[in-house]
Automatic annotation (TrEMBL):
Chain's gene name: sod2
E.C. number: 1.15.1.1
Cofactor: Mn(2+)
Family, similarity comment: Belongs to the iron/manganese superoxide dismutase family.
Compartment(s) where it occurs, according to its Swiss-Prot or TrEMBL record: Mitochondrion matrix
InterPro entries to which the protein is assigned, alphabetical: Fe/Mn_Superoxide_Dismutase, Mn/Fe_SOD, Mn/Fe_SOD_BS, Mn/Fe_SOD_C, Mn/Fe_SOD_N, Mn/Fe_SOD_N_sf, SOD_C_sf
Binding partners and assembly: Homotetramer.
GO annotation, cellular component aspect: mitochondrial matrix
Native species: Mauremys reevesii
Protein name (Swiss-Prot/TrEMBL): Superoxide dismutase
Domain Manganese/iron superoxide dismutase N-terminal positions: 29-110
């Protein structure tokens, strides 16, 4: 996981990614992280069935496919097969992004979540969005507006020292594609909500605010400013 984060933040070009992946030869396989709560802990806002399928099936698939892609990349690297190395980039980005995004997502949620953030994060939200209500409305709108599958994000722009809201398509990792440090991610792939909310994404987005762990988001904000 740490390797993926470093790769995502260092470079956006294929050349940089290929160079960085040279360290794959001695790493351990990625594993599915445990959830910090039971599958049913986020009910009624997110059902136990959705959480179980989302974590044990969908996230697990990203982890497994990432390991396969990295093994193939290691073999291509050893053979000096640049064509194969380049052809593996989409699988690395998609499955690596899926692993990164979901690992953040689980910690962004909590059965004790909801409400509003406190302290420095709240001050920053008011500074950059005017109010918490404005921020919530903007992130919801960005997430609703994702065409097809993707994520809505609250990120931190380290160059400007400001919070930003944006969206990423598919499993594109926020930091690797925009440079923003991820603080809060909202999964708007249908597998995150369809069994409970059908195709009414706005209802899912209204509900998810009740389980956002502002403690986790605040900790991420504090850490990225150091």
């Amino acid at each position: 996981m740490a390797l993926l984060c470093r790769l995502a933040s260092r470079g956006r070009s294929r050349t940089q990614l290929i160079a960085a992946l040279g360290c794959l030869t001695s790493r351990q396989k990625h594993t599915l992280p445990d959830l910090p709560y039971d599958y049913g802990a986020l009910q009624p806002h997110i059902s136990a069935e959705i959480m179980q399928l989302h974590h044990s099936k969908h996230h697990a698939t990203y982890v497994n496919n990432l390991n396969v892609a990295e093994e193939k990349y290691k073999e291509a690297l050893a053979k000096g097969d640049v064509t194969a190395q380049v052809s593996l980039q989409p699988a690395l980005k998609f499955n690596g992004g899926g692993h990164i995004n979901h690992t953040i997502f689980w910690t962004n949620l909590s059965p004790n979540g909801g409400g509003e953030p406190q302290g420095e994060l709240m001050e920053a939200i008011k500074r950059d969005f005017g109010s918490f209500g404005n921020f919530k409305e903007k992130l919801t709108a960005v997430s609703v507006g994702v065409q097809g599958s993707g994520w809505g994000w609250l990120g931190f722009n380290q160059d400007q020292g400001r919070l930003q809201v944006t969206a990423c398509s598919n499993q594109d990792p926020l930091q690797g594609t925009t440079g923003l440090v991820p603080l809060l991610g909202i999964d708007v792939w249908e597998h995150a909500y369809y069994l409970q909310y059908k195709n009414v994404r706005p209802d899912y987005l209204k509900a998810i605010w009740n389980v956002i762990s502002w403690e986790n988001v605040s900790a991420r904000y504090t850490a990225c400013k150091k």
